[in-house]
Specification:
Blueprint: E1 3-7, H1 12-21, E2 26-31, E3 41-45, H2 51-61, E4 65-68, H3 75-80, H4 82-103, E5 107-112, H5 134-149, E6 154-158, E7 161-162, H6 173-182, E8 185-189, E9 193-194, E10 197-198, H7 199-212, E11 215-218, E12 225-226, H8 227-237, E13 244-248, H9 268-273, H10 280-287
Amino acid sequence: MKRLLVTGASGFLGWNLCSIACENWQVWGTYFRKALDIEGVNMVCVDLTDERAVGEMFETVRPDAVIHAAAVSSPNLCQTHPQLSYAVNVAASVRLAQLCGDRSIPFVFTSSEQVFDGKNSPYTETDAVCPINLYGEHKAIAEREISQRYPNATICRMPLMFGCVPPTASSFIQPFLKAMRDGRELKLFVDEFRTPVSGETAAQGLLLALETITGILHLGGRERISRYEFGLLLKEIFQLPQARIEPCRQAEVNMAAPRPGDVALDSSKAYALGYCPPSLKTALLEIRGKV
């Protein structure tokens, strides 16, 4: 059985990815500060910003393919800690791509819809990047550098993701659901639009991309929806009549990182390959009772 290395295995996306991939791969997952056991997965602690440690880890694991899911993914944290963001989101990513290129093995980099400014959605793979926050800027730089260093790499731009989580991570719906269940007011944007998918669906898309394509691929869902509309759908599916959801606009909330208004992804290229996200209602029904 071939060896797949998944970075960021203790994170939301990496955990979902490892859980699915171990059916067909011998999976090795990396973590740094948050130790986690995943059944059927070989876990290894490594600081991805430590070039020597990463090289030694490659020699130990000898992967046949790599999916790089580790990232500093909070736009606000990246905005306030630019050196950390660059070290993880750019330098470590490019180094991993180079190691895979040196070995001529498949490499999948998880980028983000945040490489766009939100003014001309839905975005296709050929649209020019135009980030408005540092997280998006660093992802865009990593995309460019990876493509130059290893042209056969695969760059998957990920949408907003939700779903079941390990003890070491969260998705955006966990705090939403807690506030709803507690009956606390939850203010959600009416002017921020995304094409969300579950973590499980995103993981399936990444594994499909690993096997089928190089270059850039969008892995968004089929439905363009605002944060506010998503909150109303959560209220309905999770049967939370006590939920107090109020509409608001991005300009009303003080955030360190500017947020693009509409980063809906056109993922028809992935759909043609067999990527098949279920409806949001179906996906939420599947995880109801688990989160």
